[in-house]
Each structure stands twice: as structure tokens, then as C-alpha cells.
């Protein structure tokens, strides 16, 4: 691992030198050379991936929490059969209530009482986005310009069935809740009953000395068992075509081959490393519109388009987190509006999955020009505030089972390990089982079961789920930057 870290640092230094040399050489060449139409767009999709991924797929809820009039809650994840029909009912109800009136503020204590006394369902959404953006995604009619017409953010959607059979719809984020009245009757109760037969028992996690999301963190109430995986590289990656997708004019690209088989390339402005297994790390140091802030929603759409043309989307990929990256802010730090925390851009983490569990982990390299932002993802995009892509990493593998499933540590133990890493000042927004993709000492890529904690700002920490360690290991960075926690 130490040798690999040294190699990555050498390649990063080499890339900087190459970019500087290319800039000097480019300055000597005639300016204003037109790029031909054929060079303007050369998207490349790796075999087995897709050019486009619908926003409705990318923005699926992480899971649905089913509330049952005081009985224990249930969890339905996107791979369960009843999830799709229940989520469809929730979207239709929210769209029907749109425009029926103003959103009425509601106290969190009222939501807590509804969870105990009424039948309903709550969607844990992957990121806070403007209301109009969510409505556009759910309706399938395109997306509003910029961040939409209304500034309210939404990262939770809850529906509860009233005594008269009508629905109350609640829109939530970390700052509070609002209510919309749904017109007419509903078929939600039938969809809830169908989904309940396949959902898993859940409980609300209390943080004790560690703060959790004010509206609750729900984890499985049963023992979670997962098997360690070994992964194979994506097959049939055409590295030349993959490289050309990043550079409109291949004639201006200068390349250096490293001893381990990686190719370092630059056109004088952008830098790229293509690894032997097809993984890539891309860096654009100077965006064209550095100061203009187009908003998280506009940046997300540009990030999704970029991924599609630079390797494509693995089947079932979803957005895991979307966070604003600010100067001087570490994992869990909330923005305070000071100049020391000025907006650098937006980080989007997209993940494939395996048997219902998301896969996190990937290259650190050039991904985010700021302080630590937690464990990376197999597909990660960093944009400037304007939405222009400034950094991209892709580390997608094909998992297969290596070991028999074993029980994970309890979620409360995972929280305790996180507390020792970040301290009690940090709020945990979510906690869920996942696979952490990383290279073993032999160089093979493995995927180990972990608990992943999302902090209040969207940063991710991974806690080793193995039960044979008295002190679970915490991973707070990627493969090549700094030390993992422990």
C-alpha cells in the first residue's frame, strides 16, 4: 500500500510537470487554431454501460421507511419488489398536491407523533434539491432552469393516511418540515400493504453523545450479514477511445507512459491518468467560469451528462451524495458564510450496487481541490460553482462473491467508532451497510462490508464491518491520499 501511495504521488508530480511543459510549448504555437467538428464531441461508452441515465433512476430514494401506527417500522430498499410501486404512488400524490396551496410550516414534534400513530411512508432522498427540481424529475417533463423557481430544499418526503382516507404530504429537510394537502382519496394504503410483505424490520437509531439527523436515522433491526467480494476490471475498455473522450483535439495531447502501465496525458489545460484496469482520474485546474454559481441542481445535470460521455453509466447506478465543497471546511463542518469557507464547487458521488447494497470507495488522486471530504465513490464528479466539470474519477469493477456472508458489527458500534474519529460536534445524516472497494496488498481489488455514515455536509466515512476487531477501522479518505483512520 505504501509503495502504491508513492507511485501515485510520483504520477501526480509528473502530471503537474507535464502540464507546465505543455503550457510553455503551447504558448509558442499559433493561437486561434479551430477544432474541427469531429473533434468537438467524442463520447465513449464502455461495453456494458449506458450513454444516458434518467434522472428518475439516478435520484431514487435510498430507501423507504414504512410507519405502521405504532408497530415497528419497516425498510424497503430500491431493489425490493414493492419499492417501485410504492415510490410511484408517492410521486403521484406529491405531484397532485403541487399547486394546491402554500406549504404550511409544521413542527418536528408533529411528525414524530404521526410516525407513532398513523400509517404512512417516508422517503430518504439522496440529496437536498429545490422543490421544483424534484417535481420536474417526478413528472418526467424536463427540469427547470437553474435551481428552479422556489428556493425550498427537500431531502425527505413523508405521506400519512388520515382517518378520512385522505393524505397529508410532508416536505422535509434538516431545517424543518412543511405540509401540503393532497386532494381526493388515495391508493397509498394498498401499496403500503403490498410493500410491507417484502420490507425488513427497522429501528430508529439514537446517537447518544453523537448527534444524528434531527428527523431520525433508520437502520435494520436485524443482524446484517454480507460476504467479502473480489472484483474484476471492466472488460474490453478501449483506453485510446476513453482518453480521446476527454480531449476534443487529440493532436494537441501529450502522453507519458509510466512503469506500472498507466498513461498520463494533457493537452496543456486538462490532465488525465488512465490506469491499466481502465480506471481514470481527470483534472481541469482552471474552469472558464470560476465565480458564477449556477446552483447544485444545474451542476448535477452537467455532471450526469459528463459521466455518460466518459465511460458511461453502470447498470443501476444512483446518486449517493451531493455536497457543496467549501474552502477550509473538513468532513462534517457546516458552512458559516465566512470568507474562509467560500464555495469551491459541488461534489457528486454516484455508486453502483450489489444485491441491494451500494458500493463506495475509489481513487483519491485529483478529485476535489479542498480539505478532506471523506471516502470517494466509484463515480465521482467535482464541478466548479458554474457547473463546469473540474474533476472526475471512475473506478468501476465487476464484483463476485469470494467469502461466505458474515455478521456485521452493530450499527451502534459503528457510530461509536465514528465518534472517536470526528467528535461529538458532527451530526450524522444517515447510516447504512455498503461495500467499500479498495485494493488489497496484492493489488487485487476487493470489496469489504462496511457501515457508511453520511455526515451533515454529505461527506462519507466507512467503518469496517468485520466483527473480529475490538476497534473497528474507520476509512476517511480514498486509496492514495493520506492515511486511513484506525
Describe the structure.
The chain has 486 residues and is an alpha+beta fold. The chain folds into 3 domains: 2-26 and 35-53 and 232-395, no CATH class; 55-205, no CATH class; 226-230 and 400-475, no CATH class. The protein has helices spanning 2-28, 37-40, 55-58, 81-97, 108-117, 131-139, 188-196, 239-244, 296-309, 411-422, and strands at 44-45, 63-68, 71-76, 104-106, 119-130, 153-161, 167-173, 176-181, 200-205, 217-220, 225-226, 229-233, 254-257, 263-266, 271-274, 280-283, 310-311, 318-326, 343-351, 353-354, 357-360, 379-383, 389-394, 397-401, 406-407, 428-439, 445-455, 460-464, 474-475. The strands form 5 sheets. It has a 9-stranded antiparallel β-sheet, sandwiched between helices. The longest helix has 27 residues, at 2-28. The protein is globular. Mean pLDDT is 79; it is low at 21-39, 145-151, 334-340, 365-372 and 480-486.
Amino acid at each position: 500500500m505504501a509503495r502504491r501511495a508513492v507511485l501515485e504521488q510520483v504520477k501526480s508530480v509528473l502530471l503537474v510537470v507535464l502540464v507546465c511543459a505543455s503550457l510553455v510549448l503551447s504558448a509558442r504555437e499559433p493561437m486561434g487554431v479551430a477544432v474541427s467538428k469531429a473533434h468537438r464531441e467524442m463520447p465513449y461508452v464502455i461495453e456494458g454501460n449506458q450513454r444516458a441515465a434518467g434522472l428518475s433512476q439516478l435520484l431514487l430514494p435510498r430507501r423507504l421507511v414504512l410507519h405502521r401506527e405504532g408497530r415497528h417500522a419497516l425498510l424497503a430498499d430500491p431493489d425490493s419488489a414493492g419499492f417501485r410501486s410504492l415510490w410511484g404512488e408517492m410521486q403521484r400524490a406529491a405531484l397532485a398536491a403541487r399547486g394546491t396551496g402554500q406549504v404550511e410550516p409544521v413542527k418536528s414534534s408533529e411528525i414524530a407523533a404521526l410516525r407513532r400513530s398513523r400509517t404512512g411512508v417516508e422517503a430518504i432522498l439522496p440529496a437536498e434539491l429545490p422543490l421544483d427540481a424534484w417535481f420536474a424529475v417526478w413528472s418526467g417533463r424536463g427540469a427547470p432552469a437553474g435551481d428552479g423557481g422556489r428556493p425550498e430544499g427537500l431531502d425527505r418526503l413523508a405521506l400519512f393516511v388520515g382517518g378520512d382516507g385522505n393524505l397529508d404530504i410532508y416536505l422535509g429537510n434538516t431545517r424543518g418540515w412543511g405540509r401540503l394537502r393532497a386532494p381526493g382519496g388515495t391508493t397509498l394504503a394498498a401499496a403500503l400493504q403490498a410493500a410491507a410483505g417484502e420490507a425488513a424490520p427497522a429501528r430508529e437509531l439514537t446517537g447518544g453523545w453523537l448527534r444524528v439527523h434531527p428527523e431520525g436515522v433508520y437502520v435494520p433491526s436485524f443482524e446484517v450479514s454480507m460476504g467479502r467480494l473480489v472484483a474484476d476490471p471492466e472488460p474490453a475498455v478501449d483506453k485510446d477511445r476513453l482518453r480521446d473522450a476527454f480531449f476534443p483535439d487529440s493532436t494537441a495531447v501529450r502522453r507519458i507512459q509510466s512503469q506500472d502501465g498507466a498513461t498520463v496525458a494533457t493537452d496543456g489545460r486538462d490532465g488525465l491518468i488512465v490506469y491499466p484496469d481502465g480506471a481514470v482520474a481527470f483534472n481541469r485546474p482552471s474552469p472558464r467560469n470560476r465565480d458564477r454559481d449556477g446552483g447544485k441542481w444545474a451542476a448535477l445535470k452537467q455532471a450526469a451528462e459528463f459521466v455518460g460521455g466518459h465511460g458511461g453509466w453502470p447498470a443501476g447506478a444512483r446518486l449517493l451524495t451531493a455536497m457543496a465543497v467549501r474552502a477550509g471546511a473538513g468532513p462534517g463542518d457546516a458552512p458559516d458564510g465566512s470568507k474562509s469557507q467560500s464555495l469551491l464547487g459541488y461534489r457528486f458521488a454516484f455508486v453502483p450496487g450489489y444485491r441491494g447494497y451500494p458500493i463506495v470507495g475509489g481513487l483519491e488522486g485529483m478529485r476535489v481541490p479542498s480539505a478532506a471530504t471523506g471516502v470517494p465513490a466509484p463515480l465521482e464528479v467535482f464541478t466548479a460553482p458554474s457547473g463546469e466539470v473540474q474533476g472526475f474519477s471512475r473506478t468501476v469493477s465487476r464484483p463476485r462473491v469470494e467469502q461466505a456472508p458474515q455478521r456485521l458489527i452493530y450499527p451502534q458500534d459503528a457510530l461509536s467508532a465514528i465518534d472517536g474519529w470526528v467528535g461529538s460536534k458532527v451530526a450524522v445524516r444517515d447510516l447504512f451497510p455498503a461495500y467499500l472497494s479498495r485494493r488489497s496488498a496484492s493489488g487485487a481489488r476487493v470489496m469489504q462490508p462496511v457501515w457508511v455514515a453520511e455526515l451533515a455536509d454529505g461527506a462519507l466515512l466507512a467503518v469496517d464491518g468485520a466483527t473480529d476487531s475490538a476497534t473497528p477501522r474507520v476509512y476517511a479518505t480514498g486509496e492514495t491520499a493520506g492515511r486511513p483512520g484506525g
